[in-house]
Specification:
Number of helices: 7
Distance between the termini: 43 Å
Strand content: 25-35%
Helix content: 10-25%
Shape: globular
Radius of gyration: 20 Å
Strand order of the largest sheet: 1-2-4-3-5-9-7-8-10
């Protein structure tokens, strides 16, 4: 059993990408793993790429891996497409007659996501912002979403973050519309590589394959999540800096905070306070600005509450099994 490469493109002069496929030759799910939907998120790119160098011993189904989904953005070391400024992660299902980024989204949607039984989308935080290492996805009570919650737990990142709804244009939003279980992964340290996190990405995907019965054993023994968050995961809507200046955080990732609590300050170059940043709700710090220089309106802190034991959803049973009492 060997990996096979296929080059697909959106027409003779359109954007393209390279798909690495491992086929067991036996019936089973088709799992699609995407890295580099944002071109500067190198942890997810190398984490996905590592899978294609491993003899996984696939027993059922097939695994399709794209280490670099947005190649133009990767070559420009950019979150967005250099030709049109398009954010691929907000462009699905795409448009075959649109901008380069929209055409690429259409290609990924048609040739990869629509043929998948499971989608895993590997991201990292941006270089300017930190997020913890977690696996997450939609949890709205639907069958596909509930299966996705099981896969997020099985990934084994130690933290799960689920959302009651998804914004438009995401890969996971398209997967929801198609009834496909899907998860995404984030990690801190955007723009740099961390050996432990790279192992976590590749190992987490193997854990998902083991949960689906596609490989014999998980990469690491299953462990329950130390924390399970539930709430809005749209980083575009988190608390913003009230003024431009230099952001000084007053909290750390995953700290517990209360609504209205001061979580950071914006300073001038002499260290004088220009504004206070307050927590938008009670919960845990899930995103935190790394770079000091901020403009007014820059999202600097995201807070998500811990998932309650009961949401009245099928995933309540998964939570009861997974989270230590």
């Amino acid at each position: 059993m060997t990996w096979r490469q296929e080059r697909i493109s959106a027409g003779p002069h359109g954007p393209g990408l390279t798909v690495h496929e491992l086929d067991s030759g036996h019936d089973g799910p088709t799992v699609v793993v995407l890295g580099g939907v944002h071109g500067n998120e190198v942890g997810g790119i190398v984490g996905a790429g590592r899978l294609t160098t491993r003899p996984l011993g696939l027993r059922a189904g097939r695994l399709r891996v794209v280490p670099v989904t947005h190649e133009a953005a990767f070559e420009a070391d950019s979150r967005t497409g250099p030709a049109d400024g398009g954010n691929l992660a907000r462009s699905f299902p795409g448009d075959e007659h649109g901008t380069p980024t929209q055409r690429l989204a259409d290609l990924v949607a048609r040739r990869l996501i629509r043929g998948a039984d499971v989608l895993v989308d590997l991201h990292t935080s941006t270089p300017a912002t930190d997020m913890p290492f977690f696996a997450g996805g939609l949890d709205d009570g639907g069958d596909a979403a509930t299966t996705g919650v099981e896969l997020a737990v099985a990934f084994g990142a130690g933290l799960v973050w689920t959302h009651g709804s998804l914004g438009p244009g995401r890969t996971l939003t398209l997967a929801r519309d198609l009834g496909i279980p899907a998860i995404y992964v984030e990690s801190p340290g955007g723009g740099v590589l961390d050996p432990a996190l790279l192992d976590g990405y590749a190992g987490g995907v193997v854990n998902v394959l083991a949960h689906l019965g596609m490989v014999r054993e998980p990469a690491t023994p299953p462990r329950p999540p130390a924390l399970w968050l539930h709430g809005d995961g749209d980083t575009d809507s988190f608390t913003v800096a009230p003024a431009g200046g230099l952001f000084l955080p007053g909290v750390r990732l995953l700290d517990r905070v209360e609504r209205g609590q001061a979580v950071g300050r914006v300073l001038d170059p002499r260290g004088r306070e220009l504004a206070v940043v307050a927590a938008p709700e009670s919960g845990h710090v899930a995103t935190l600005q790394r770079f000091a220089a901020v403009a007014a309106g820059t999202p600097v802190v995201g807070v998500a509450p811990a998932r309650p034991a009961s949401l009245g959803l099928p995933s309540d049973r998964i939570h009861a099994r997974a989270v230590p009492r």
